Amino acid sequence: MTDDLEAQFAQWRRYLEGRRELRPADVEELEDHLRGSVDALVEVGLHADEAFLVAVKRMGSLDDLSREFAREHSERLWKQLVLTGTADGAGAGTRSRRDLPVMVLCALGAAVSVKVPELFGLTLDRDGAFYAPNAALFALPWLAGFLAWRRGAARAVVGVLVGLFALGAVAANAYPLAEDSQSVVLTAIHLVIALWFAVGLAYVSDDLRSPRRRMDFVRFTGEWFVYYVLIALGGGVLTAFTVGTFTAIGISPEGFVSRWLVPCGAVAAVVVAGWLVEAKQSVVENIAPVLTRLFTPLFTAVMLGFLVTFGLTGDGIDVEREALILFDLLLVVVLGLLLYSTSARDPLAPPGLFDKLQLALVVSALAIDVLVLLEVTGRITEYGTTPNKAAALGENVILLANLAWSAWLVLGLVRRRAPFAALERWQTSYLPVYAGWAWVVALVFPPLFGYL
Amino acid sequence: MKVTKDLVAASATPMVLGILAEEDSYGYAILKRINELSGGELDWTEGLLYPLLHRLERLGHVESSWQSVAGERRRKYYRITDGGRAELAEQRRQWETVVGALKGIWPGSDGSRPLIALPLGGRA
């Protein structure tokens, strides 16, 4: 090998290293390939320079090569960009330029729709029974619309989305529920979940069957949450200044703040946060995986501590309804940690300490789930069933199924018996189950329990 | 003759797994082997091969490791796993079905009677 040729290789390698689709190991693998072709060409009688040129030419366009890598490793690109539409990119360019006005339009739409009920005499502070179950319907259709527009969703998908949101509107308003009934709270909570999965459908509308795309949606959810919290914090500061400065000049802005600024801001921020995640225009890149890494060990410690204490004291969980809901929420948080860390993990990485930690987390969650399940079943047999208990029971069973199989798969991963992809596939194909259950609670429960 | 893109894509997984079932190998050697086996008719690109290898690894069908064989560069070698062998057997069954069906339709060199009459020139 001449120095000249080595210099050419070095230059080619630098060029490849500049591509964010490729990792150093990929560059090394491809360089080995190029060297193999050059050697073969030199053997048949070409000069080193010629051989290099021919070999590079044979490798074809690096854009094509990187695009194929990008398709396989979407988790790498997640940080920098979101692949949208077709690979040729011509349509995508004009779309991304129109992102901002479309986002503003959707955010405005959300803000307007939260004020529309006031035309019919409903107000936020007096008509909680109307606003609580409808909350998701003011913001999420606009976010779904923005995403569906960005993806260029097919007509059939748009039709399904419209249908789902219409169904949501029926679930929120068609039943005669009293303001203090259990079902109002249940519907409000479950409708948010059900409709968030409708947003997910809009998110994956360019590739409905792909498990990787669903995983992207899980990532999106985590990032969206972080952005939303940040916007809410900023909104709090804005509110404080609005109140403070106007009060200082003798004008009371409380009415404006509580009737316009807070409700309109809250729903518009749902769309804005979604747009921020898509556009990645913020400095806080991928903070959610960091939070997951931080809180997985802490939650594991708390839950193991609880189980040990529970075993030592020997009493059953004899607690109020609220505490049972607390346990349910804890399990949901654990599931969120599991889902999110699954989405953020490098699929090719060998099993490590963090995976063992995750196994401990899942197994302890499983134990707690069983305890809660026993408690809920006991209560139902003793006092009869209510919407709250039935909803808790269903959620626990669904979580139990997911956690049990996840524990098995994580165990396989830690013992190097199963690939990480199996866990990923299980989690992504389980997502519709949550959506299905949320719809059941929102649509079927109120009539089933006589609008209790 | 150029094999169409769809056909290349559909046959890529069983080919790579089949080659790795013979022996552990690395990217360039796999590409060369495919070229040999097809008499130069199948010309895969690197953009097809390497992402495919990475996908097979993600799905647990193959495992990779960097190895330095004496007198050679450090290379990323791929090895088929038990899961990969099972996948290969499954794909083989599917391909045999397809090939068997095609053989039944086309006038073959094995003397079987063609089901459709083709103008065969002097032999008719």
Automatic annotation (TrEMBL), chain A:
InterPro entries: Perm_prefix_1. Keywords: Membrane, Transmembrane, Transmembrane helix. The keyword Cell division does not apply. It comes from the Bacteria. The chain crosses the membrane at residues 102-124, 130-149, 156-178, 184-204, 225-251, 257-278, 290-311, 323-341, 353-373, 393-411, 431-449. The keyword GTP-binding does not apply. Signal peptide: none annotated. NCBIfam families: perm_prefix_1 (NF038403). This is DUF4153 domain-containing protein. It comes from Saccharothrix syringae. The lineage of its organism: Bacteria, Bacillati, Actinomycetota, Actinomycetes, Pseudonocardiales.
Automatic annotation (TrEMBL), chain B:
It comes from Saccharothrix syringae (Nocardiopsis syringae). This is PadR family transcriptional regulator. The lineage of its organism: Bacteria, Bacillati, Actinomycetota, Actinomycetes, Pseudonocardiales. Signal peptide: none annotated. Coiled coil: none annotated. It holds the Pfam family PadR. InterPro entries: Metal_resp_DNA-bind_regulator, Tscrpt_reg_PadR_N, WH-like_DNA-bd_sf, WH_DNA-bd_sf. Residues 16-90 form the Transcription regulator PadR N-terminal domain. SUPFAM superfamilies: Winged helix' DNA-binding domain (SSF46785).
